[in-house]
């Protein structure tokens, strides 16, 4: 399956839930900003990831996942550090 870039952002209001969500996201994605991550994944990997997060989160929490097409990923401006969104990334999942 083909992999794509995704931008993942969350807002979790409870510190205990936030920690669980953070650990799950950190295991599959790279941090870009405080609660913003980038993820290089297949559609299947993304769906499993999303389902895990929905189970960890509550109704008052928010999750945003944005699919970035190849052209969009090339145009990402990240001034915080040198990151290349054009290249394939090795995915390491912490269990």
Automatic annotation (TrEMBL):
It is an enzyme of class 3 (hydrolase). Its EC number is 3.1.-.-. Mg(2+) binds at residue 11. InterPro entries: CRISPR_associated_Cas2, Virulence_VapD/CRISPR_Cas2. Pfam families: CRISPR_Cas2 (PF09827). Keywords: Antiviral defense, Endonuclease, Hydrolase, Magnesium, Metal-binding, Nuclease. GO terms for molecular function: endonuclease activity. It comes from the Bacteria. Its cofactor is Mg(2+). Belongs to the CRISPR-associated endoribonuclease Cas2 protein family. Homodimer, forms a heterotetramer with a Cas1 homodimer. NCBIfam families: cas2. CRISPR (clustered regularly interspaced short palindromic repeat), is an adaptive immune system that provides protection against mobile genetic elements (viruses, transposable elements and conjugative plasmids). CRISPR clusters contain sequences complementary to antecedent mobile elements and target invading nucleic acids. CRISPR clusters are transcribed and processed into CRISPR RNA (crRNA). Functions as a ssRNA-specific endoribonuclease. Involved in the integration of spacer DNA into the CRISPR cassette. This is CRISPR-associated endoribonuclease Cas2. It comes from Chloracidobacterium validum.
């Amino acid at each position: 399956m083909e992999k794509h870039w995704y931008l993942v952002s969350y807002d979790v209001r409870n510190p205990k839930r936030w920690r669980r969500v953070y650990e799950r996201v950190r295991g599959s994605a790279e941090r870009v900003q405080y609660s913003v991550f980038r993820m290089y994944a297949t559609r299947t990997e993304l769906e499993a990831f999303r389902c895990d997060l929905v189970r960890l989160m509550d109704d008052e929490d928010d999750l945003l996942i944005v699919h970035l097409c190849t052209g969009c990923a090339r145009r990402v401006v990240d001034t915080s550090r040198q990151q290349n969104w054009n290249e394939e990334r090795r995915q390491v999942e912490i269990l």
